[in-house]
Structures are given as structure tokens and as C-alpha cells.
Amino acid sequence: MAKAPAVERTNDKPGMASMLDYRSMPGIADEMLDINGRIRPVWQPFVNALSRMEERELHERFSRTDRYLRDAGVFYRDYSAQGNTERNWPISHIPVLIDDKEWEAVSHGLIQRANLLESIVADFYGENRLVQQGYVPPSLLASNPEYLRPLVGVKPADGHYLHFCSFEIGRGPDGHWWVLADRTQAPSGAGFALENRVATTRAFSDIYAESHVHRLASFFGAFRDTLQSHRQHPDDRIAVLTPGPASETYFEHAYIARYLGFMLLEGEDLTVVNNRVMVRTVAGLKPIGVLWRRLDASYTDPLELDQNSHIGTPGMVQALRSGSLSMVNALGSGILETRALLAFMPAICRHLLGEDLAMPSIATWWCGQPSEREHVARNIERMVIGPAYSRLPFFDDNGQSVLGSSLRETAKDSIGDWLASDGHKLVGQEVVTLSTTPAYVDGKLVPRPMSLRVFAARTQDGWQVMPGGFARIGRSNDTAAIAMQAGGSAADVWIVSDKPVERTTLLPAEENFIRNMPGSLPSRAADNLFWLGRYIERSEGALRILRAWHARFAESADPKQPLLAHVTEYLETVDIDVEESVPASLIANLNSAIYSASNIRDRFSPDGWLALNDLAKTARRFQSKVAAGDDATHAMTVLLRKLAGFAGLVHENMYRFTGWRFLSIGRYLERGLHLTRLLGHMSGPDAPDGSYDMLLEIGDSVMTHRRRYNVNTAALTVMDLLGLDPLNPRSILFQLNEIRTEVEQLPNAFVNGQMSPFYREVMRVHSGLAVMTPENLSPAVFRQLEQDLEHLSDLLAQTYLG
pTM (2 decimals)? Predict the structure, then answer.
């Protein structure tokens, strides 16, 4: 093996030399070194740059990557017996480098495979000659849950079954690539590949800038343009169909939708009317022409596919039959992921394409045939046996596969009986020895097994392979540890040229442009924005009352004094326990705000998401560490400042369109309710001394009161300022003014020249308060106003959110 490269030293400080001693890292030569032990040319500049770095510098670079991913809110969802949790995206900081000439051969093999898969699925749901002519056993279709009979004979509207595929590929130590699995159902990971690229360049921006690394934007731009060409009507929308926030890859769905400018929808957002798929929006039903499906096919239509699905849309299959909808990929294409199908791919390729597979599949034997069963049994030591109908490679199937070499001798002796009885349900696959790539672990570069997930998109010029993708890196030398759920990590893949590459962007190059208005707002998104506004304002109201309560408690240490006792009575009516310095109900409101925001990640800025999560984390941290009195007062002030920071981000950055209006109406409505209830409770004739001063403090209006009134705090001045002053952003009338203004701009505020029932009710409530004087504001008036505001919330839901 060749010696490690020369390392440049600065002031005799240790660089990366100890980490780049390849002689102490057997196996790392698979990716970084050639068969003669020399560093591959594509790696040489990167290795030289690493060699000049001190360990501290490398840690600082990796910290930039980790910080970017945290700030961007990139997460992966883990599933376990204890439930599912979000964890930070498991980045492997060292990218995988591949020469673009080698990548041309990989791309050629995958394009051939994509065309082959298109021909296979077209046959399965068409004439079915592959089964008739003996190239595919009938049971692989007849017994396969992924073979969707309602789709037989249904031809895609755009003429193609497959539009976006991914391939799990691996390279052996000898340098040859093979396909481990095909992904055609709802391929995931393209969005994560983009984020890996952005995150990794944070660490190696200087190296990346000097290297001729192929960019990813042109791949997505070409696919976006192709989907737009599939629209049959000018008013058709394009959408990404997601299972929802519980999906392990939901972040990616939201990211892709935002990156490409598509709507992000769930099944409940859609309905089928006259064989056309429509999205429920606040402006009524709008047509969907193209759906990029990110959920399994069987869940899409509970009427004709899986009746137990709660995330699908009844009538979706009929819409596809009518030809009014293009879907990426066609329903039923998941049949191509069947593990046993790999055994028949070489013969099918020669039959359909007249050529051998350019990139072979991992060696696979379907055990439903006598000779194949015997071969697997004879060679059990180098076999993995797993479910024939599984759609996952063995390292992803959560232990369903059995490694032959791990069996006891008695089990090996009986393997033939097992295969004879259940062979049609099983496949044997040759144990793969994956090449390794450098990974940074505990301060050193160590070899770890690697597979690549590569993406191919059908464009108007044919299939195009993403120049990169992402690598799955094992957490140990065990190939089975590559899976993300098993603790594996993901690395960026750099396809490097020896000459400059084109730098592309998704931004239009034309000087002339059309300013398109944002698309229609789905009702579910409006609902989440409305309640996000309400939960945030509800949290702020609670914080302001609690801060005032604890400030006074710090002075007297007597919770039973009349003023504190009176406020405590009110807090109990809104489920706030003052014995908890940071009440559980406050945490619940913040968690509800996060949940609402999580449902609209495609419409919510990363900065806003980060600020909201930081607010909730701070509140949880205070929950067990803050004592009543001064400490709690300080804690409430800190939380209010963080909440104000979040509100400021939203206010300054959110586009003033329909979504903004629902968020704002939620805030104004909740603030109005908060003030109405509080004034009704604390302004009666039995109000204790200090009530009006406390109301001004809670309403953040102490200084304004001093400037506007030449008298001390009194009932009428407080009622005027907090109830009826149209210029005070904390008054009830101000909230109704703003609600009226926003409602005027909502779709269908006027119907046939007349106010909608909702708008009419807003005007009635607003006018009723606007003509009042402070003397009229009694507890009874506040009770009626509270009912009116609650009724406005119900009417808004009936009008726009149903």
C-alpha cells in the first residue's frame, strides 16, 4: 500500500496526519484508494486539503454543518417500541467523491434500468405477456400485495408509469457497481440530498469552490418543467401528496414542495368531483392536475384500495381512470420493488431490451423453484434469506432476513425443509461486501461500509440521473448497520469533473417576468395558521398575567391577599395553575403551536420554526427550575421576549397574502378574547385595590395611560384605553378593527355584491363595540362580547375551514 501523502506542517502543530494514515485503516482503500493502494485522483485535492487542517479547525468546520442542519430544522423520525421521535439529521461530514467519467457509466446503467422498469410495469398492468411467456412466475403477481388489481388496464394520462425513481446501489471492493434495490413506489431522499449538499459545503466551502463538482439544481429544474408540462388545463395545480407530519421523511416532503414551488397536500385536503381531483381551499375547490405521490399506493384511495386507510382520498383511482390526473409514480408501481423480481431481471432485460443489464442486480434466487432452492441450501454460508415480497434490501428490513452464516449447524441442516415448505415466499441473496468510504468517528477517519441512493427523473429529454445523491454510511463495519433506523448516517456525494462545470439555478434567467400571485391556500393550512395565531397569543396572554401575579407575590409572599386571590380565581377559569411557576397549560399551548406549525412546514420559515422551538425548549427548561416570585417574574420576561422575537420574525417576513390573514385573525381574535375575559373579571364593583393598575400592566399600556390621561388610574380610563381606544394595539376595539380589515380581503367576503354571513357578523360585533362609551362596559357586556367572539371563530371555521 502506498504511503500516506506528505503533510504540510505549521509551527510543528499536529495536522491531520495521524487521521490520514491509510496503513492503519485497512479497507478504506475501497473508495479512496485504487487496487494498487494509490489515492484515486478524484480524492487527491480533498485529501491534501484535509492534511493541512488541524483537528480544531476540522471540528469548527463540522460544527458549521451541524449548526446549519439544526437551524434549518432538518430532522429524521425514528420509530421504536416506545413510539416515534424526531432526531437531528444524521450527517456524515466527509463527502463521497466520484469521478464524473465513472459516473457516466453509472448513469448509463441506471437509465437503462429505468427504461426496463417502465416496460415491466407497463406489461404487468397491460398485456401481462411476461407472465404468459414464463419470464415471471404468476405467484409473484397473484400473491403480491403491491399488485393492485383495480389499476389493471388503467393507462397513465401522460403515457408513462414511472417519472421519478431511486436506486440503492453498492460497489464491491473490486470496484464494480451493482443494484441492491429499486425504488419506484414513492422514492424518498432527494430533498435530503439537497440539504446534505448545502450542509456539507458549510464545512468545505473553500474546497467545494475550487473543485469542479456538478450542481444539483439543473436536475430538479428539468423535472419541475416536465411536471408543469403534464398539466392538461391552465388552472391545474401541481402538488406533493404527503402522508403527513408523522411520516419519517415529512421534512423532505415540505422541503421539496417549498423548493419547487408546489403545494403540499394531505389526502384530507382533496376530494374528487366529476372524476377530477380538487383541493379544498379557502376560495373553494380548485383542480389538481399533477400529484407527486409520497405515500404508498394502497393508502391513496380507501374506496378501491385499502378501506382502512385514513390518509387517502376516495375516488382517486376513478380520477386516474378518467385521465384527468397525472401521478408520480403511477399507482401500482410498487410491484417493481419486490425483492424476488431481482432474480428475473437479467432474462427480462434480454427479452424486452435485447441487451444485458449494464449494471447487474445483487445476485438473487427465488426459492419457489427446485434448482434455486437447492443452490441456496448448498451455499447457505454466503446467503441471506428473506421475504420474497419484501420491498426493502436486507439491511433495511428490520431483521426479517436471516444471515446464513449466523445459523447454528442444526438450523443449517434443516434449511432445505424450510425452503421446501415456504420457498415461494423466500429469496436467497448473496451476502454483499460493500466498499468502504472514510467517515470521521471519534476524531479519526475510519472505514465504514457505504451504499448510494441515486435518483433518476423523467424529463422532456428522457431520463436524467442526479449528479450525486446521498450515501448511506454504516455506524460500524456491519453492512446491516447502514439503515438510517439502525443508526446509519448520510453523506453528500460529489461528482467531480476535471474541468469547470455549469453552475445552474432554479431562478429564471429571463429579464421579463410575470409576477404570479401565490397559489390558493388549502383549508387545512388555513386552519393550522389560524390556530397557530391563537395558541401563540394565548401563550402571550398567560405569560403577561403570570408575570404580573408573580411580581406582586414577590412583594408580599401572600397568595391570599385580595388582589392575588382575585386573579387566581380568573386563572383557574382558563386552566392556569399559579402553584406551577411555569404551568403545564402554558407548555401545552406552546406544544400545540409547534404542532400547528409542523403541519405547514412548507409555508413556515426556518427562522420562525427555530424561534418557536427555542421558545418551547426554554419554557420546559424553566418548568422545573423556577421558584415563585422574582425568579418566575424574570422567567416570564425572558419567555415574553422570545415570544416577541418569534412574532417579529413572522410579522416582518411573512408574505401578506391569505395565509398571513388567517394567522393574523387568529392572533387578533385570541387577544380580543383574552382582554374581554380579563376586563369582565377584574372591572366589576367588587374589584380589589390595584386591579386597574394590574390590568394596565398586563395590557402593556402603563406608559400610554400616563400620557393620554391627566388623572390617576380609574375604571373609566382603563375601560377606555383597553376596551375602546382604536389606536391602542392592546385594546379590544383595535383587535376588531384589524379582524374586519383582514376579513375584507379574504376570498368570498362578498358574494354577489353582498357581505358573506361571516363578514356581516364581524361588522355587527365591531359596530356594537365601536358605538359604546366606557360607561357602557359592564361585566354583562363583556360576557356577551366573549360569546360573540367565540361565535366569530365558529363562523370562520364553517365558512373557510370545513
Answer: 0.87
For residues 580-588, average pLDDT: 92
Q: Is the dihedral of CA 397, 403, 409, 412 positive or negative?
A: positive
C-beta of residue 426 within 8 angstroms of C-beta of residue 415: no
Give the orientation angle of helix 691-698 with respect to helix 562-573, to 10 degrees. Answer: 50
HSE, CB side, 13 Å, CA atoms: give it for residue 786. 16
Residue type (1 letter), 352: L
Amino acid symbol at 665: I
Residue 515 is predicted with a pLDDT of 53
**Cell of residue 428, nine digits:** 436467497
Other beta carbons less than 10 A from residue 10's beta carbon = 8
DSSP string, 711-756: S---HHHHHIIIII-TT-TTSHHHHHHHHHHHHHTSTTSEETTEE-
Structure-derived torsion over alpha carbons of residues 251, 252, 257, 263, reported in degrees to the nearest 10:
-50
Q: Give the Cα separation of 791 and 758 in Å (integer).
A: 10
Three-state DSSP class for residue 390: coil
What band does 710 get if pLDDT is binned at 50, 70 and 90? confident
What separation, in Å, do the N-terminal and C-terminal C-alpha atoms of the chain show?
69
Q: What percent of the chain has pLDDT over 90?
A: 62
- Which pLDDT score is estimated for 278? 97
Mean pLDDT over 476-487 rounds to 55
Question: Are the CB atoms for 737 and 766 separated by under 8 Å?
Answer: yes
CA gap 29, 47 in Å, rounded: 13
Question: For 214, phi and psi rounded to 5 degrees?
Answer: -65, 135
> Residue 391 pLDDT > 90, yes or no?
no
